[in-house]
Predict the structure.
Amino acid sequence: MMLAAELEHVIEQCHQALDEIMKGSGDGYRRVYSRRDDVTLANPFGPPARGWEQVDETLERAASQFRDGATTGFERIVTGVTSELAYIVEIERMQTKLGGRDDITPYALRVTTIFRPEEETWKVVHRHADPITTPRPVESLIQP
């Protein structure tokens, strides 16, 4: 079984990958993601992507929305590790220029990342990120 210490190294690579996204590059996530057909990515910009090809395209689209940014912190909520899967839930904090804006904007995401052992390391098989980091009223669930 891969140990939690090995997972922490891969999580640090994921944090560095997010920093690269804030600068406009998806290359860091390309290094940590599995290439299998069952991988998924659900980011704040659209519907979930499934399979490496869709995930790669989604990473590229997401990275193109950011520039001149950086991560500013990570708040770990929980870590779980078994011999077959591992997961983390975190609040990620960043600041970046979003879209066509010229000002640096701070923001936070609630993120769940799932890992699986592949090729003697942990690989990301699922990442879900959304901007819900504070309590919201039940009415916020209603779509207009």
Q: What stands out?
A: The beta strands are 40-42, 49-50, 66-81, 86-98, 104-118, 121-130. The first strand starts at residue 40 and ends at 42. DSSP finds three helices and six strands in the chain.
